[in-house]
C-alpha cells in the first residue's frame, strides 16, 4: 500500500498524529476502524499499553501539526486548541477505541463466526448492471405490498421471497453494487424505498458477519416487511418531518403490532421472521418499544434489523437538512454503543459498512470530488473512487478511477479522503453517477481495476 508513513516509537507519540498502522493486526484490538487521530493523553496511554511502536500517516499528520522535527526526535506537544482539523477528520477521530477487555474480545468472536465464508465472485461493474435492473423490480414489489396492505388486501408472498432472494444472491456475489444503489436512491424517502435500503444494509452486514444464506434471506424478508403496518396509519402522520410526540407518537408506534398481526393472519411466515419484526424497534438499554426488552432478550436478527433501520433513518430524513452524512452517522452510532445498541454490534457494523460506504460522495485532499466505487477490505479509508469534479469543482471531461490504496502522485503525496459530502453537492445527482459508471464500465481502466 502506497501510504506515506513512518514508524514511530511509542514514547514519541503526540497529539495530532494520525495512527495508520499498529505493530499488530487491527482485528486483534478493540479499535472499531483502521486509523485515527491522537486527540489527548488518554489516547497515547491506551496505545502505550498495547504497542511498542506504531506507524503514522505523514500526509494526514501534516494537516494537524508541524512534522519538520520528526526525524530529529519526538515532536513538540501541541495543545488541543491549536490543532485545526477538517470536519471529516474530527468525525473520524471521534470514533475511537474502547477498553480491550477479555469479554469484549469474546463477544467480537461470537459475532464474527467465519470471515472467509463469502468472497466476491463477480466484478463490481458486472454486478452493478444486474443490481440496477433488480432494484427497479424489487421497488415495484415493495410498493405493491404497501398498496395492497393499505387497501386491506393480502399480498403475494412469492414475490416478496423472490425480491429478498435476488438481493441476497447479488450482495453475496459483490456487496458494493447494491450498497451503491442504497446511496443513490437515498433521496427517495417513501416507505418502500426505506425498507429496501434498510434490507440492503442488513444483508451486507449479515454477509460480513458470515450468517448462512438462509438466515440472510430470512433477515432480508423481515426488514422488507418490518414497516408494512405503516400503510394503515394516517398519511399525514407519516409525512411529518418533525419528531412525533404525545398522542401522535402513540399512534405511530402501533405500526409494529399492525405488521405482526397482518403477517400472523397470513400464516406464511416463520416464527423467527415475525419475532424479528416484532422486536426491531426494541433497544439494548430497554428504551425501545413495544415491549421495553433489554439486551439478550432481543433476538440477534432483531438487533441487526433495529441497527440498520436506525442507520437508514438518520442518513435519509424526510427533511434532508436533518440527515447525517456517512461519517457523522457512524460517529453518532458509536456514541450509542452499550446504550441503544450492543457495543460489539455497532463496532462490527462500522467495520462492515465503513466510514465512507460505496456510493458516498467525498472530497480528496486534491480538492477533487469523487464517488466511492468500491471498498478496500483491508484498508477501508483507502477505497477505489471515481473523479466527477476537478479541483475547481468543474465537471471532468474524462472519467478516471483511482485506487487510493496503491496510488502515489508524482510529487510523492497520496490522494486521501478528507471529507464526505451530501448527494446533490456541486450538482451531482444519482442519474449522473449511474450514467458515469455505465460509461466507465466498458473502459479499459474499469476492466483493469475490477476484473
- In whole angstroms, how far apart are the ends? 19 Å
What is the structural class? Answer: alpha+beta
Residue share in β-strands? 5-15%
Q: Give me the Rg, rounded.
A: 23 Å
State the strand order across the main sheet: 8-7-6-5-9
Helix content: 40-55%
Query: What count of domains describes the coordinates?
Result: 3
Oligomer class: single chain
**Might you state the CATH topology name of the largest domain?**
Hypothetical protein af1432
Q: What are the segments in which pLDDT stays under 50 over at least 5 consecutive residues?
A: 71-109, 442-451
Shape: globular
Quick one: how many beta strands?
9
Structure description:
With 451 residues, this protein is α+β, with helices and mostly antiparallel strands. The chain folds into 3 domains: 5-100, no CATH class; 124-353, Orthogonal Bundle (Hypothetical protein af1432); 361-450, no CATH class. The protein has 18 helices and 9 strands. It has helices spanning 41-50, 58-62, 87-94, 102-111, 124-150, 157-173, 175-184, 191-208, 213-225, 235-238, 246-252, 255-266, 271-279, 300-315, 326-335, 343-353, 430-440, 444-450, and strands spanning 5-9, 18-22, 36-37, 53-57, 361-364, 369-374, 384-389, 395-403, 417-421. The strands form 2 sheets. It has a 5-stranded antiparallel sheet. The protein has a 4-stranded antiparallel sheet with strand order 1-4-2-3. α9 (213-225) packs across α13 (271-279). Residues 71-109 and 442-451 have low confidence and may be disordered.
